[in-house]
Amino acid sequence: MATSRRDTADSYTQRAHREGYPARSVYKLEEIQLQNRIVKPGDTVLDVGAAPGSWTLFTHRELLKGNGTIVAVDLNPLRLNPVPPTVVEYTGDAFSPEIREKLISHGPFDAIISDAAPMTTGNRTVDTSRSEWLAEQVLFLATEHLKVHGNLVIKIFQGGGQQELLLQMRKLFSKAKTLKPKACRNDSFETYLIGLDKK
Ligand SMILES: C[S@@+](CC[C@H](N)C(=O)[O-])C[C@H]1O[C@@H](n2cnc3c(N)ncnc32)[C@H](O)[C@@H]1O
Predict the structure, then answer these.
(1) What is the DSSP secondary structure assignment for residue 87, as one 8-state letter?
(2) Can 199 be counted among the known catalytic residues?
(3) In principle, which of 38, 54, 118, 199 could form an S-S bond with 151, CB 3.0–4.6 Å?
(4) Which residues lie with the beta carbon below 6 Å from any ligand 1 atom?
């Protein structure tokens, strides 16, 4: 029986392995989806920072139920074999002009989900400011390429300007809030910004 949050976290890793997901992060999206219904079958979804591919696979299997499109982008390739038929994969910097152009050619999107995170340095000031930059870029993408009534999920490291981004999201969405899923590791300072029903 789990006796601490770290034990619980380890059980998420074991469960991900049993269920065929390459990372335990899948259960963060599961909780976000259960509370907010971000994605529905038939949607076109942009998954930013998608590798190794747990969110992508979960979206294919459980949210789209095989019906829809996931545009998945990461600096690294997905570790999904086979890559599900709903997935269009791009490897590269999501915010470089070339990749961005390719991504938006599949839009506008019903949902944008981003678990993108910088390589951490151990210096919290550096890490949070890099995370903030990524989150701002995703919000900018959503401003331009998310459909009206669309939903948004963005990871951000706490301390990385999330209050300012949340204020911006409150103007763009009918509802905006933060959510820290139970599957986040106890020592992690990440949280998620959720925007529902774009105006
Ligand atoms: C926590 S991992 C994502 C895990 C993924 N959601 C899953 O469930 O398998 C964060 C990812 O963000 C990616 N990333 C960071 N900056 C990026 C950028 N500029 N463009 C694309 N991907 C980026 C990293 O390469 C890394 O794979």
Answers:
(1) E
(2) no
(3) 38
(4) 22-23, 25-26, 49-55, 73-76, 93-95, 115-118, 134
